[in-house]
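CHAIN AND CONFORMATION:
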Amino acid sequence: MSSITSIPTAASELSAGLPWAPAPMSADDVLAAAERLVPVLRERAAQTDRERRVAPETFRLIQEAGVLHILKPKEYGGFELTEHDHAKVAMTLARGCASTAWVASILSSDNVAIVAYPQETQDEIWGSNTYATLAGNTNLNPKAKAERVSGGYRLTGSWGFCSGSDFSEWLIFNAPAGENGEGHMFLVPREDTVTVDDWFPTGLRGTGSRTMAVEDVFVPDHRVQATKDTVEKIKERRKLHPTFDAMYAPWPSPGKFPFASVGVGAALGAVEHFAETAGSSTRVAGALGGTVKLAEQEYVATEFAEASGEAEMARLMVEASSARFSQLARQRQTPTEQDLGRGLRDNALVTRMALRSVSRIFSLVGAKAGFSDHPISRAKRDVEMMSHHVTLNWRQNAMTYMASRM
């Protein structure tokens, strides 16, 4: 493993030349902008996969499309849109490139973590750059060290899977602190971190989800919070942004579908690619040679119909479930245990449906799909990778759902 300090261009550099904040955009405006990006992302997807990072010029397009302002307070140039809007935009972007959509979805989602901190901290992050983003890892690293000093802590440790860290000015890390060693969330400027280039997975390779490390970095008190207090802190900060409905959603919220929507979008992208190319595609007929046209095979028609139907059902479930959570937040209603259990089930279920869909399509293509640059290969690898995310664990979420119904 090698350590590097800058991969590739920080978002602060990319935001140079942009207005202080995007012009106000409606949900339909942002979704339309995301739709226009799909062919561009699709064209760049193979390069993103090979280079294990989203290109700076691609990230600039995400900024300009307003994606990073969906779940951001109006005080800082945000649009204060809903989790439903966030899920639909992430799903749309993933039809072009799952890795790019994954990064955009996480950086957009993490804005809600920022609003859990005091206004001083929010001003520090967004006051001069409303495009500033937060990446990192909120899983507790028990090996990390946070030494209490005057006015804050000295933090040392490393955290893997920091998706979006290529373009984030800020990192969030969960480390034990205090007498009982409880988890605390530390916000650290990117310049105080070191990137470890260890991201060589089979899928989602373009997310650049590398390990980030800090060594004896001072973190002031206003950038430190006990993890267990996050939900209550978000509630306290509501008075700072009284019209921001997403602050009334649970945290972390299954309604945003920050990961599952990307899987569904990737499956929908595979469906679109196969539909566009099947008419002119062939595969080897048998061991002695010959070719058959895919579009003329009955088994292809039946498998593709089922695969595309599953992907479409998953899309409808994401839209319906995210709309329910957004409606609860808009009405200032706290989700019940059944609501939360159902939301977790839906996140894991649509991911399973997306994986089945893309795997079926993969099997129709033949040996050509085994090449890493093939769009169906990439979609299958990406969905397989995200299906292992802890929030999408089917058995765990199914148990939670069952308990909520009893």
